[in-house]
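Exam prep: given the inputs below (a chain plus magnesium ion), describe the expected output before reading on.
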Amino acid sequence: MTGGKVTGINSNLLKILVDGPVSQNEICYVLSEGERLMGEVIRVTEDIAFAQVFESTRGLKIGIEVEFSGHMLEVELGPGILSRIYDGLQNNLEEKPGLFLKRGEYVNALNREQRYDFVPYAKREDALRAGDWIGEVREEWLSHKIMAPFDQEGIWTVDSIEPSGSYTVTDTIATLRSNSGETKTVTMMQRWPVKRALTCFKEKPRPFRVLETGVRVIDTFNPIAEGGTGFIPGPFGCGKTVLQHAVSKNAEADIIIVAACGERANEVVELFTEFPELVDPRTGRKLMERTTIVCNTSNMPVAAREASVYTAMTIAEYYRLMGLRVLMLADSTSRWAQALREMSNRMEELPGPDAFPMDLPAIIAAFYSRAGAVRLNNGKTGSVTFLATVSPAGGNLKEPVTESTKKSARCFYALSQSRADSKRYPAVDPLDSYSKYLEYPEIVRYLDEHLEPNWVDKVLELKNWTQRGKEANDQINILGDDGVPIGYHTVFWKSETIDFVLMQQDAFDVVDSVTPYERQKYMVDLVLEICAHEYEFDSFEKVATYFKRLINSLRQMNYSDFQSEEFKRHEAELAEIINERAALEEAAQ
Ligand SMILES: Nc1ncnc2c1ncn2[C@@H]1O[C@H](COP(=O)(O)OP(=O)(O)OP(=O)(O)O)[C@@H](O)[C@H]1O
Ligand SMILES: [Mg+2]
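Solution:
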């Protein structure tokens, strides 16, 4: 085993003189007065290694010893991950009193004593590839697949497999042998280096299905594909976290992995306290039963923050190999990028724009490319959909993290300060935001088949009204209410109807917060019908009064259970207002 001595300390970055081979991203332990602090090698030049320590380096001295472990930063994968709250190094935070661990303390991610009822799928002499399902255990409500070792090369044969029964994650449940006669034992737990994607599947086709989130600005206007990528940039306090939580509560996903990287400590505590109580509206199960949280707060060292997004992604990929739909959320990836920046600066690398590392776009692209829908060796499908937030300083969308992310993520949900200021939540800007999936033939076909033929035309019609409404409003602002034809006001109010009824959504109302596609379609049709009508108003004041009444009834509908008595009452009110107007216009002719 390689060892070394610390020859330089710059905050969390250690310079180490090594006495043997060391590899990039290898994990090392700094031995200081009985403590073992974990670190990761981030650069090697001849006999000097630079390592970032995942802990506070307070009190470390030149000359102390370092041990190199021979492996990269790894996670433990196996039953018992679901519902856990981990830090970026996969320490189980609930196993310890208090929220945070003391320096140098690491806790097993998986419980070594707990027994799980294993049911074998494979039999003796079966041929297995890496990731093939050997059997299953029940992990709470989930059929958790036990898989052939991810690092296995080629095809191995089952030599022996244990019968159904209760086992711990470290008990041997099978032995495999290779063509060349090597053997290996299989347990329910595996390790995997977090910075390497888990790719033991057959293929990764282009996304071909939409992931329903129940959030109208996403589903109706800019849908995200299952296995797709999206991000939410927005100034401080504009609703990034609320929007992401709304998606996590309602999205059609089996498993949710949340990477809370470097948010304020109190927000993480909110996650702890709010998540356990939340109920999944689709299954009636507690939301936490299908969620794993990987959290780091900004008071943890930067290196741990950098690790957390990778840890979360690896866990997401693991569940994807079980044929599940995984939604991975990261809030906020700007903190992750800042961690990269701090380390790069300490290493005195040549800086890129705003002192971020030169290869920031490549790092972000590599990360986003780990998402995706996959076809497994057994023909089943699984997916990791990735939705991140970015917090650009001062809301400047031209800064490097936003720009780099824009190149990688296919959906862009830009939050606007002015919409947030006027309480138009979620504050997603209707004109700046986009979903590239609306141009994917697979997704268009999916919408045609699952919603209705030519659905995307309706979406484009809504966007067109929004654009025209903005232009009309600009003219009204320049020329005054009286200075433009009344028709401008009508166009503007049509776009306001789309805004108030379809885009705005109350994340804190039980009914309004979740809108299934069927209901979204219903409301889109109502609103488009209103937009299609040509009105003849004789004063601009009347335009506003009329549309405000329509909007009020439509919003009441949004707050009522779909097709309930109450819903129908408001719908009848709406029809009455529309008929009243039609009668007036007819009389005037
Ligand atoms: N959909 C919504 N419905 C109602 N209120 C909302 C909605 N979205 C955001 N808000 C309001 O905006 C506040 C700030 O939202 P949030 O914490 O999500 O912002 P943020 O962009 O994550 O901020 P930060 O940059 O500080 O992390 C919320 O506490 C809430 O009052
Ligand atoms: Mg936030």
